[in-house]
Amino acid sequence: MEFTVIWCFQSLHKKVDLFTIKRINLIIFPVKKQAKNMFTIITGAQFGDEGKGKIVDMMASQYDIVARFQGGDNAGHTVVAEGKTYKLHLIPSGVLFDARLLIGPGTVMNPKILMEEIAMLAENGTVVKPDKLGIDAKTSIIMPYHIALDSLRESKRTVKIGTTNRGIGFAYVDKVGRDEIQMADIADRNRFLKRLEEIAPQKEAAIRELGGDPKIARSEVDNYLEIGKKLKPYVTDVSMEINLALKEGKKVLAEGAQGSHLDIIHGTQKFVTSSSTVAGSACAGLGVGPTKVDKVIGVIKAYITRVGEGPLPTEQKNDVGEHLREKGGEFGTTTGRPRRCGWFDLPLARKSINLNGYTSMALTKLDVLTGLETLKICVRYELAGKIIDYPPELSDELAKYKPVYMELAGWDEELSDLESFTELPGNAREYVKLLEQLMKVDIEYISVGPGRKQTFKK
User: What does the record's cofactor remark say about binding (predicted)?
Assistant: First the structure.
């Protein structure tokens, strides 16, 4: 037991010394020792699809709570366990362990997609009950009109953003505009119908203006009410749960979606997602103070990929790009679209490290580089004789710069059965050590395949 000691000086004379103090009260209050916070944040250090789901799944057994803090079902986290592949979009990747799972109010949620995931997991032997999953009452609900507006708006753009047409952006617009429907609303029939009556007219007008069917605005009401009834027992206060857990000395893992360069503020606008994807968003999206964060882990591929439009300086539209795409299975989890592939981009990595404050990194898909005779790392950019080692802030400027490469020898040995850093072929070890040296952040984990056993600590 620790004690706080307070000396109280009372009734002091004008001249104060030890002999003129009339009375001294010694008050001893017992103080409960605060448990050390164990709050870890995981984010993607590139454009998403870095393998965050795999890393979260690997770490989840060490945590009491795994919480999703932003994005929606535009994210796709793939977990491979015991020969089965689980493609998750909303449920945190720690679902196959005993951790409590939370969906925070910083997310936007399509309840139909959530129900599909719960059913898929049940079919594979994992039943997700309310004691397993909690959904914050303030979580924004994606409505049919959000999806319609997303698709209609993207079709009208001269320069496409490359959205997933899942209504994510328009759900966030309503969150910021205070016209959202929340989880608490669909769990209560009267609340839901009242909110929809307020919102539907403006959505009908917006859909009609874009050439769509305004009836979509009031469609699927009964379906949403039925789902709301089923999900009502899952409703919780995520911020309160996490803060209480941390006070009790429990461990919390915050799982991000997408990647740092898709951040709505700091990413390659306008080719970004609709939420903040960097580590600071975990605190805001879950309602946890930043002083409680212990670790921030960045997940980064041994190369780089991007889905949709926007600058990608090291993109390889050649045999190298095809090698990375085919060997890496680089097709979107959510959309199935082929990903654009390129060499590792150090300037972009540097910016991610600044944006997130990574304490360590997890390097994924090292095995995909097997078979390439020469490897390249972009260490700087060049434009008309000007050399820079950090990305320009504006996307149109970034698109103009050309990569300046460092070359290394590749390797032919397969890595998928290896279980430690020392087992890697020499050139693979040199590649990892060079990335660590260039990024100036420790690489804590290395992944050489999609399975659980194919990730090890460096």
Answer: Binds 1 Mg(2+) ion per subunit.
236 annotated to a ligand binding site: no
pLDDT tens-digit map of 282-317 = 999 999 999 999 999 999 999 999 998 999 999 999
273 among annotated binding-site residues: yes
Helix (H, G, I), strand (E, B) or coil at 39: strand
Q: Which of 49, 136, 185, 345 is catalytic?
A: 49
222 flagged as catalytic: no
Q: Over the stretch 324-367, which tens digit does the pLDDT of each residue have?
A: 999 999 987 667 889 999 999 999 999 999 999 999 999 999 99
Q: Are residues 336 and 400 both part of a single domain?
A: yes
Q: What is the pLDDT of residues 425-434, one digit of tens each?
A: 999 999 999 9
| Average pLDDT over the chain, rounded to an integer | 90
Q: Are 417 and 382 found together in one domain?
A: yes
Residue 266 falls in the annotated catalytic set = no
Domain total of the chain? 3
Q: Report whether 49 belongs to an annotated binding site.
A: yes
Rounded to an integer, the average pLDDT of 405-413 is 98
Q: Is 76 labelled a binding residue?
A: yes
Task: Residue 90: give its domain's CATH number.
Answer: 3.90.170.10
Q: If we measure between CA atoms, which residue out of 293, 335, 313, 282 comes closest to residue 383?
A: 313
> Position of tokens 């709301």?
228
- 63 and 104 in a single domain? The answer is yes
The answer to whether 274 is a known ligand-binding residue is no
Residue spans of alpha helices (H) in 90-188: 111-123, 144-156, 168-176, 183-186
Q: Is 447 annotated as a binding residue?
A: yes
Name the strand (E) or helix (H) holding 380.
Answer: strand 374-383
* Phi, then psi, of 186 in degrees rounded to 5: -75, -15
- Which residue among 233, 249, 273 closes a domain? 233
Catalytic residue among 77, 146, 266, 323: 77
Cβ neighbours for 311, distance < 8 A, ≥ 6 positions apart: 268, 271, 395, 398, 399
